[in-house]
Amino acid sequence: MYLEYWNLKEKPFENTPDPKFLYASAAHEEALTRMSYCIEENRGAAMLTGEYGSGKTLLTRALLKKLLQEGNKYKVALIVNPSFASNDFLREIIFQFDSVLLKGTKLKLIHSLNELLYRSMNEGKKTVVIVDEAQAIKSRSMFEELRLLLNFQMNDKFLLTLLLVGQPELIRKIDRLPQFKQRLATTYHLTGFGEEDVAKYIDYRCRVAGGDSELFSPATVKMITKGTRGIPRSINTMCELSLLQGMFEEKKVIDEDVVGKVLEEVYI
């Protein structure tokens, strides 16, 4: 609706996990590096956490894109709804790796996964399982099933890397599972941006969308940072509505008046 008015080619503040819109802050770079390290060095398991809307899913999709761009070096399964029963969880992993929906006992599934992992290793491929929204896992037994995946290993390396991604509740759940926690090679927690990163984040997304990097006046950054606590999802909502409001008022840039009106009308 407002694209033509602001000379944009696409919407810059959609709350969808499109990797091209990933603003590489120092925190996001470190998180990506830690996860990549865990995969490259066959370190077994890693955990990425953050507040709702802090950019975990977008970061995960950027990692997935990076792995898939490396051709046949990786086999990756992405579980976005981890509330499966344990047998169904194993079936989903095997299906994503081999496009085969297996039936049968749990023992048969474990044997099939073991065979798949050894085959991947012999082909020179690394196997990665990413579990998004892992805080949604309710049962202790399911976490135990995930931990047991890490028993697939050689003397000197794991045959599978497990990445858990979730909201802060996941930290509390893992803290109550010391055997699982001890298997984590690295963890990282994402927080909201500071004012400097909020400014760079807004400018970056406007430029990626084909627009002017100065659509928002410098004075609005402090207001947006305070109103959103620097959480990317909330920044997106605030900026989207500001672009719409700015168009209604025929503004040349988004100023404090526009952002102030949006803050009064929207609960973020």
In short:
This protein is α/β, with parallel strands linked by helices and 268 residues long. 49% of the residues lie in helices and 12% in strands. It has 2 domains: 26-190, P-loop containing nucleotide triphosphate hydrolases (Rossmann fold, 3-Layer(aba) Sandwich), CATH 3.40.50.300; 193-265, Helicase, Ruva Protein, domain 3, CATH 1.10.8.
Strand order of the largest sheet: 2-3-4-1-5
Helix content: 40-55%
How many separate structural domains?
A: 2
Query: At CATH's second level, what is the architecture of the largest domain?
Result: 3-Layer(aba) Sandwich
Number of DSSP strands?
Answer: 5
Report the portion of residues in β strands. 5-15%
Counting helices, strands and paired strands, the structural category is: alpha/beta
- Arithmetic mean of pLDDT: 92
The largest sheet, given as strand count, sense and whether it forms a barrel, is: 5 strands, parallel
Oligomeric state:
single chain
* CATH overall fold name of the largest domain: Rossmann fold
Morphology call: elongated
Uncertain residue ranges: none
Write the H/E string, N to C: HEHEHHEHEHHEHHHH
Radius of gyration: 21 Å
Give the CATH level 1 class of the largest domain.
Alpha Beta
Cα distance, first to last residue? Answer: 22 Å
Look at the structure and name the CATH superfamily of the largest domain. Answer: P-loop containing nucleotide triphosphate hydrolases
Number of H/I helices: 11
